[in-house]
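[Discussion] Sanity-checking designs against the backbone

I'm trying to build intuition for which residues belong where. Below is a structure token string of 244 positions. I'd appreciate it if someone posts a full sequence so I can compare it with mine line by line.
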């Protein structure tokens, strides 16, 4: 039986980008909604605000939703309902589309001003590089992410992972469901998707793709339990290295 093609999410699975997302979104949010020009520096963010952002990072699944997370933090609103983010994201669509554009413009400005500093604020999760290199050598790896391909490729190349651009499905190519549909039509083999988001695993399953929850990523104990009840296998960093 042919080994599966592994579709792998990026942020929260391969790469820990929480601090970069925090700084980029903070700068973009202040520029856009407060007319304040902040530096690309995590130390200027109040410690309690930074702690909240890092803890609740898993609630924001696209760049535009970072604006809602900062709204909650700034107004000291209790953060305990993922559905609140989804409801407001729909209600504030025009505002959040504006933030989406500002977020990426801000990220690319940082990359152009200080690429070394931008790269340094990210970390790869232990063992994931080895898995990617192994699967690439076997023609069995494809990135499917809500992050932009430009950033993904820059980070992989920085870590000496030679992934062709054609194997990166970033946000500019559509949402994950669109990538799943295209790959289902072209892959010609079984596929398995590794992500830290239960909703995305359910979407993958609806496309006939096996799902694994990355428990080390941007998730919570409740989400891990819910994924298990849904019948998904739960991966840890040690067990992901055992995937063949």
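Best answer:
Here's mine. Compare freely.
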């Amino acid at each position: 039986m042919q080994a599966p093609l592994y579709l792998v999410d990026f942020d929260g699975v391969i790469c820990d980008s929480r601090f970069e997302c925090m700084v980029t979104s903070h700068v973009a949010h202040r520029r856009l909604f407060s007319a304040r020009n902040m530096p690309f520096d995590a130390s200027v963010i109040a410690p309690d605000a930074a702690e909240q952002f890092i803890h609740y990072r898993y609630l924001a699944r696209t760049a535009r939703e970072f604006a809602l997370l900062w709204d909650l933090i700034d107004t000291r609103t209790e953060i305990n309902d993922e559905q609140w983010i989804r409801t407001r994201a729909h209600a504030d669509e025009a505002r959040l589309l504006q933030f989406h554009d500002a977020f990426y413009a801000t990220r690319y400005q940082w990359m152009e001003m200080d690429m070394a500093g931008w790269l340094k604020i990210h970390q790869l999760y232990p063992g994931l590089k080895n898995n990617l290199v192994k699967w690439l050598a076997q023609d069995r790896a494809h990135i499917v992410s809500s992050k932009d391909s430009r950033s993904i490729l820059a980070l992989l190349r920085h870590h000496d992972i030679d992934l062709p651009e054609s194997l990166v499905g970033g946000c500019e190519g559509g949402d994950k469901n669109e990538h799943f549909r295209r790959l289902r039509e072209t892959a010609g083999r079984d596929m398995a998707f590794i992500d830290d988001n239960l909703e995305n695993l359910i979407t993958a399953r609806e496309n006939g793709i096996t799902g694994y929850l990355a428990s080390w990523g941007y998730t919570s104990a409740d989400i891990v339990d819910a994924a298990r009840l849904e019948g998904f296998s739960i991966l840890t960093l040690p067990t992901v290295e055992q995937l063949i």
